[in-house]
Fold this protein.
Amino acid sequence: MKYESIDRLMSDTPYNPPWLINDMIAQGSMLVLAGEAGIGKSTFMYTLSLCVATGLPFLGHPTTKAHVIYCDEENAIPDYMGYWQQIWHGLGCPDKRLLAERLHFASFQLGDEDWLVNLRGAVKELPPEEPSLLVIDTATPALNIKDEDKNAEASQVIRRLQSLQANRNLTVIVLK
C-alpha cells in the first residue's frame, strides 16, 4: 500500500485538478447523472459531448478538447438524429472533420454480458496521453444491470468502469 504524505494532503496550496470542463468536471473523474425520464439528460450530455469534442465552451465554462465516445442504449434513431442535428446547428455547425476525429457515437451495441470487452476495445483505440470522455446513456440497458437496487452489482459495474480508466486520462459519465 502506498500512502499519501500528510504534507501533500494538507498543503497550503489548493489542489487544482486538470479540468475537462473548467470548474465543473475534472479529467479522470467518474460521475453519474441521474434524473427522471424525459427531463433532458441525453440532450444535456449530447451538448456537453459536442462541446468537449470541439473545445467549445459548455454553459459558459471553457472545455479541454478531448476524444468522446458516446454509447447510447436509450434513444431511438429519430430521437438521437434529432438531438445531434439540433445541437450541431445550435452550436454554429462546428467542423465535421474535427468531429469525425474526436466524436465517436454508437447506439444499441453494449447491452450484453460483454459490454466491458466492447468498451475496452473502443477506449484502447483512443490516444492514451490525451484527455477523453466516455458517456454511457443509460446505465441499466448499456451495462446489463439486472437489479438497480443491488449494491453489490453496482459496485462490480463501478470497478469494471474504473478498470477502463487505468493508465488513461479518461472521464466517465453514466446516465441513470
Summary: The beta strands are 19-21, 25-26, 30-33, 67-72, 103-107, 132-137, 170-175. The two ends are 33 Å apart (CA to CA). The chain has a mean pLDDT of 92. The CA atoms of residues 28 and 166 lie 10 Å apart.
